[in-house]
Amino acid sequence: MNLDMNEPNNTAVDAVQRAMSQGAILSDVQNVCPDGTKAWMLCLGYLEADEGFLVRAGNTSLASNKDAARGNKRRLLPMYCVLIEHPYEGLILWETGSGSHYPELCGPVFNDVFPRVIYEPHHDLKAAIESTGHSYRDIKAVVIGHLHVDHAGGLDIFKGTDTPIWCHERELKSAFFSVATGADFGVYLPHYLDLGLNWKTFTETELDFAQGITLHHFPGHTEGLIGMQLNLPHDGTFIFTGDLFHVKENYYDGVPQGWLARDHPAWFNSYQRVKRLQHRTKGKVIMGHDSTTCDSIWNWKGASPLV
């Protein structure tokens, strides 16, 4: 779906004034994408997983219900990318999904835990980009929130190109270490963690990546995870958190992640920072895999989900 309708006669000043009229703080919303910016949130298929991976104590029993008959609840997990058509920077891609060969490359054990259950031809990364009238060959920069396979597996289409691939320095080091030593093998895989890609990193906690695009370091799920703040000129602020929050309970209810959690104190600090950022910008928070949130974007303004 196109996140910004590109209505005429609106300017960055108008955007800032609209945000401030809703209670936003000037310093957090004044970096606005230029007029003419367009953004698409594109569906790249669906995984499925046991709820226990996503929310702490998911699928566990209590003394008060230990005798109740129940099955293990599973969650449908959309994957997506965001394509930004930026008047000054060209095409910018936020994340890539799992890649077209996810089942074969991940192997039977991983597929038993995190199977890809919906994947149609239009969910392919190249096809999804082409649905906007663009080609992946025209992308000027890729930004990866974190390098787990369901967010970065599609990087293999950029092999043999000089397209810059941006991530936090701590994420790149952690991912390559994990593959080289087997420390976290499975969620990180070697087929897309290729030394031949044009890797670019940063170390800042907050980086103004381009006009209207700010990257925030949000460790917890992984030590180098970043989120993207996108200040659009007409539709306001979107905060893409990646897997800092897998599902809405992680953000709205403050329920920590389940078995996929890594560093809880870091996660909690990042959670608090996102809460404050949303309060200061009045932005829309988009989690990594929440079906309800994704559907609300894909159905927004009458658009049909790309399922």
UniProtKB/TrEMBL annotation:
SUPFAM superfamilies noted in UniProt: Metallo-hydrolase/oxidoreductase
Cofactors required: Zn(2+)
The family this protein is said to belong to: Belongs to the metallo-beta-lactamase superfamily.
Superkingdom of source: Eukaryota
InterPro entries, sorted: MBL_superfamily_lactonases, Metallo-B-lactamas, RibonucZ/Hydroxyglut_hydro
CDD domains: AHL_lactonase_MBL-fold
Signal peptide: none
Originating organism: Piloderma croceum (strain F 1598)
Keywords of this entry: Hydrolase, Metal-binding, Zinc
Residue stretches making up the Metallo-beta-lactamase domain: 78-289
Molecular function via GO: hydrolase activity; metal ion binding
Name the record gives this protein: Metallo-beta-lactamase domain-containing protein
